[in-house]
Every structure is written in C-alpha cells, then in structure tokens.
Design goal:
single chain; alpha+beta; two-stranded antiparallel ribbon; 4 strands; rod-shaped; ribosomal protein; Ribosomal_bL32_bact; ribonucleoprotein
Length: 59
C-alpha cells in the first residue's frame, strides 16, 4: 500500500487548499438587446436573445 515518504507541512497543505478558493467568479455583461445584466455566453432571460438571434420566446 502507498504511504507518503514525508509529512506534508500545514503550510504546504493550506497553500494547496487556498488555490481552489482563488478561482475568479465569472463577471456579468450587459445584454446588447435589452441592456439587462446577464451571464456571458448565455441566453438573456429578459429578452430571450443570444448572439443577435431570438432563441427563446419571452412574454
């Protein structure tokens, strides 16, 4: 069975764990059609447009 050769220090362990928390949260962009805030590369929930085309019928 595999066993670590040396103890990993708390500093090394914690450095590895903080790398996951440093991931940047995606920003928001303005929809070019209705100028509402939306996530990038997604259909706008307010107007239903994506890349200049109507994808969803929003009533």
């Amino acid at each position: 069975m595999a066993v670590p050769k040396r103890k990993i220090s708390k500093a090394r362990r914690d450095k590895r764990r903080t790398a996951k928390e440093r991931v940047k949260v995606t920003g928001f962009v303005e929809c070019p059609q209705c100028h509402e805030v939306k996530l990038p590369h997604r259909v706008c929930r307010e107007c239903g447009y994506y890349d200049g085309r109507e994808v969803l019928n929003v009533e």
